[in-house]
Specification:
Distance between the termini: 34 Å
Largest sheet: 6 strands, mixed
Length: 421
Amino acid sequence: MKCINCGTDNKLKDRTANQGRCIKCNHLFAFEPTSMSNVKITDPFFAKAIADISANNTLFFTPKQLLYFLDNRLRAKSFSGFGWLVPFLMISFFTAIPSYFIVPFIFSFILIINFLRSSKSSKLNNKDRQSNAKALQILGGIILAGGILFSINVNSFAIFVIFISMGMLSINLGTRQSGRIGLVTQEFLFSESQVKDWLNRWQQINGSILKILPSPNQENKPATINPDVTAYSFDRLVVCDSASIAQLLIANNFHFENNCAILSITGYPQSIFDTTMQMLRRNPDLKVYAVHDCNPRGIGLVHKLRTNANWFLNSEIVIIDIGLTPHQIIATKRGMFIQSSPESAQAAKKLPEEIRQSLSAEELAWLESGKFVELESFTPQRIIKVLQKGIAGSQTLEGDDSSLLLVGDTGNDMYVVQSFG
């Protein structure tokens, strides 16, 4: 493992002999991968992860974003090198005598089960699951070819039927799994508490990580704002369904660069919430952008903005939903970190009828199965880029921008961006 301080490569015996320190500069290593159980972390790996998620230390990020980011990079890799199957299976088919045809049969069956399980595994990423689905298809082709040659060699129609059936089964399973990869739920390889421990260890040794955000400050004490400032208003408001995302956008100066106010539905930031809402209500041309997770709470964000007296009840304010939505998750061809929980399933079944009517049967089924996707599964750079695109696209709703979809009747003034990320 290379030392992040001087770049010297330290072998395990060197690190052990020097009490976990670099043999050249004596810098203490934060991690010892050989003593870790479920995942292996090295200092260079962790340093690069922090640099990458923060876009070379230019963007703030949340601890949960780091959890998702590390999980994606550490996710177990499946064995995708299946070229060795060809000679092995062919040799089995050609050399096995009729009384031992069960040998290639059992071996093929074990491989089918293994690849099928891996293509469904919540511990693998979409790329690796796709590799296993493809392996099923290739394995099926090998079984078909080998089965035909073997059955001709031994002149057995029964063996021909067995291997043809097995080969077709493998191909069909691989094809089916390939089409379902993007909707498979995932589990974290490690917990948030483990990431917290890693962060604490890292910062004790290497100093504070300047771009990682603390928990959102929920102080109720109002801030003092210059009266001259409160005389103005904003043309745009971004409302997030979580304080964490609102804090992330504010920390990264999204409000300055896009000339908008940023609040969370929970009232963050509390210190300026009331004053900001007073300023916003002065502008009859205000546009509101709803940003949320793809879960029952997030799906209900626009409805809450329209029906809550603390927000825009009985108002003609335009509200634009820029995701995430089940439609986006189902339609996307890019892998997203889809999770599932009984609590989310129950919450979906309790959604108000007005919200349910705005969703398709497929979207409702997706939500009621307990599936959800969090915005924090995306990097800060990705979130900011997509929101900027959503806001820019909404300026030309009457045009031919296919990334926007009108939902419901035009009197609601509510639109959905079709592609997030």
